[in-house]
Structure formats: structure tokens, C-alpha cells
Amino acid sequence: MARFFKYKTPSDVTADAATLGYDIPATEDLAPLFQPVAVGDRSVGNRFAIHPMEGCDGTLDGHPDELTYRRYLRFGAGGAKLIWGEATAIADDGRMNSRQLLINDDNAAGLEKMLADCRAAHRESVGDDADLLLGLQLTHSGRFSFRKPKIVCHDPILDPITLDKSTGKFIDASYPVLTDDDLKRIEDQYLAAARLAAKVGCDFIDLKQCHRYLLSELLGAKHRPGEYGGSFENRTRLIRNITQRIAAEVPELILATRFNAYDGIPYRSRAEDKIGEPYPHELPLQVAFGTNPENHREEWLDEPVQLVENLKQWGMQLLSVSMGNPYANPHIVRPAEFPPVDGYHSPEHPLDGIARHFRISRRIQQAVGEVPVVGSGYSWLQDFAPHVGAANVANGSIALVGFGRATLSHPDFVKTLQETGSLNRKKVCRTFSYCTNLMRAKHNELGQYATGCPPFDKEVYGPLWDEVKQSAESQDD
Ligand SMILES: Cc1cc2nc3c(=O)[nH]c(=O)nc-3n(C[C@H](O)[C@H](O)[C@H](O)COP(=O)(O)O)c2cc1C
């Protein structure tokens, strides 16, 4: 398979992007990344954000475990001033996997220790944590809840590939949809989770509305009847209620949301060459948010822009823009050089995906003015992600540059950049997708392998990856 990344300098990225018709500037001047930025009433010390990334390494009851603590110590020490803690379920039946963190009274002390240790590591490493913003992404996994899918509407393309593990069958039109009363209970669960989050030391919480988990699916529930479906007003009722109630009842928290500004549609691997192709689908599309119903490749941003303007009014103080669905169209969420095991070879140049991320996040940042927006999709740019990020910050396209996979291989990337002017090539993520592959591996006694970076955090995750391969081979036998 052709590989795409072949750049020797930041300007090579810009030049290659131009051949594809995109304006992706890069700058050698990284100073904009080291400027503070206001988030709510706080000043955040630099423009580096660590994206939320599940480690899938909690205990079966959702308590942080040894590897969870290790990850947050490393993130804390790394120098980024916005640490966006991972997807943490607000209810056991909304967990995405058997080792996902769960916020409840029993786990509160563990989460508190995880956050406090992260802060202490930050202080020890860079001297000051007054300008560190640390929080958690609160989630209900909805359709992707591992015990049983909890859907808010049927999706004619996604339903036939949504597995109900409790029956071993894919779901169909007869599968039950969560009722309006169920959603009201979920609103209360968010409230309880927010209160606990404040108690355990979060500066902010993210009400997760991305990647087609529950609140994200609801944004596109155009044919759902009742109070939470159909009109834009109804589809945003739950996020409106949750945001306004938390703003009123837990005012000490900064409210944030990571949301899908564009869903697209599911892809599959084409038989002849394993390149991704869209699933066969009928037009108009019924449930894809931020997407032209007549052409899934085209973003339609009227509703996402309306959403963020409303969110700002309701009290949202920090946004992170994402898109796509990690299971059904991973090339949109995380442009990669090598596809994940359950994916396909990229149907587009990764720069197409990166240009989509940049174009959409710029539009959202323009819409909300001074509310800071975190941009995504940087890891594929490898050594030159900081240069491209600095250009995007300098020209006002976004306020903060979010790094995902890159932080698993090189958690101290900010410190290294500050001290040496460049990343450590030996630790730069090459988007091999091992992290996603570990996340997809579930054939151990816990029903889930922990994820991290086998090639560059070898000591810990190398043996885990070997085990995954060996046990998969013995399963094949
Ligand atoms: C192992 C792994 C776990 C992830 N977990 C989450 C998560 O908990 N919440 C979320 O919003 N995104 C999650 N993501 C997506 C990342 O936050 C990020 O959007 C994506 O990797 C693209 O950014 P990057 O190119 O810098 O990696 C995860 C990605 C990976 C690879």
C-alpha cells in the first residue's frame, strides 16, 4: 500500500497540501503555542491540549488501575496545560467496554487520586499548576454500550453493523429505542456525575457529544418522535437541559463539550483491495449530523454552527471539535498511515482528512468568537504537527491544538519541544494504529486489553501486544 507521509520540513506539508488544493500553513515560529489563553475565568498556560483517550485499563468496576495512574502521571509531567481526561461513563450500562472508567461514589476516591497525582506530577515537572486545566469527559456510550446497545434512534446504515453482544445478533428495526423517560433519567445521571466530578478535583467537565455515542447520536435523531427528536430544538433538548442545570447547580465547574460537527456515514473495506468505501445507502440520509443529506462527503455546518451559538448562551466555555465514528469511519476521526485491524486502507489522502478537520474547526471557532476551540487531527503530521498547529493558532483558526495518539508515544512532547525546539524523532507517533488495535482486542479474561503505544512505550505495551497476537493466533487454530 502506498504510504503518504514523506515530508522532511514543515513547508513540505504545506506544499503537498497545495497540490491537493488545500491551504495548510506551517510556521517555524512556535511561540504562539506557548502563549496563555483564557478559558472561562481561568488562564491556561499554553496552547497544547491532550485529547481525551481511553486507556481501557480500569478495573471491571470502573476504578482507575495501575496503568491508568501511570498514564495520567505521564500526561501531567509532559507540559501540556490542558489535560482533557478520557471518556468516563456516567452509568454502568453506558460504559463502552468492561474496563472503561465509571464515575460513581465507589470510584470517586480513585478518580480523585488520579487527578491529584496528575497535578502533582505537573507541578514537579514544570513548576506551577495554577495554569493547568484538568478535567474529565463524561459519557454515555449509547449505541456502543458494551453490555447492550442503547440507541436513541434507528440508523439504517449503522443498525445492521451494531452488534448486541447479549444476544450475539446485529440489531434491526424492531430493536427498542430509549424512551423520553429514559433520557430524563440520563439527564439526572449527568447531574450526579457533574457533582462528583467537581468533588474529585475536575476544573472542567466535557459533556461528550462526539463519535456517535449517545448525545452525539441524538443530535442527528431527525426522525425520532417525541420531545427529543425531529426539530433541532428537540434534538438539542437533552444537552440544553444538562448544560443549563449543571451551569446553575455546579457553577464551580467550567463546562466544555467535545462534539461532532460532521458525522459522515459508515465505511467498509472493499473486497478487492481493502480500501475503504461507503456502505451502500439510500438518499436522503436520515440521521447524519452536520452532513449534506444528499452527499455524505460534504459537511453542512448550519446546524453545528447553530448548536455552538446556543451552547455558548447556555454556559459552555470550552469546545473541542471532532467528527466521524471511530468504529465505522475511522479515517475521518483519526487520519492514519496504517489502518486499524477493524478498518480499511484510507480512501483519501490523510491530508484530505486533516484539511476537513481544520476547515470545520475554523468555522466553529469563527462562530463562537472568544470561546476557545480545541482542534483535532494533528498526530498524522508527525514532527510537523507543532508547526502546523502554531500557524493555526497564530491565524486564529483555533485556540488550542489537541494531540491524541501522539501523546501515547511521546507524553513529554511539550517539554521536549520547549527545551530542544523539536520533538524527539524516536518517540514521534507514526500512526501505526497499534493503540486502536489494542483497544479492539477483547479476548482476555477481563474482556478488554489496555491500550497504549507498543512500538514506543515498549516496556509496558510491547508484551501486551505480543499477548494479543499470540492469543489471536491460538484462537484461529
Ligand atoms: C486509543 C484511543 C482512545 C481514544 N479515546 C477517546 C475518548 O475517550 N474520547 C474521545 O473523544 N476521543 C477518543 N479518541 C480520539 C482521540 O481523542 C483523537 O480525536 C483522535 O485520535 C485524533 O487525534 P490524533 O490525530 O491526534 O490522534 C481516542 C483515540 C485513541 C487512538
What's the short version?
By secondary structure, the protein is α/β, with parallel strands linked by helices. It is built from 15 helices and 17 strands. An eight-stranded parallel barrel has the order 3-4-6-9-10-15-16-17, surrounded by six helices.
What would your notes on this structure say?
This protein is α/β, with parallel strands linked by helices and 477 residues long. The protein has a single domain, classed as TIM Barrel, CATH 3.20.20. It has 15 helices and 17 strands. It has helices at residues 10-19, 66-78, 108-126, 180-199, 214-219, 232-235, 237-249, 302-314, 330-333, 350-368, 385-394, 405-409, 413-420, 434-440, 458-476; strands at 37-39, 42-44, 48-50, 82-89, 101-102, 133-139, 163-164, 169-170, 204-207, 254-262, 267-269, 276-278, 291-292, 295-299, 318-323, 373-375, 400-403. Strands 3-4-6-9-10-15-16-17 form an eight-stranded parallel barrel, surrounded by six helices.
List keywords for this structure.
alpha/beta, TIM Barrel, two-stranded antiparallel sheet, 17 strands, globular, binds flavin mononucleotide
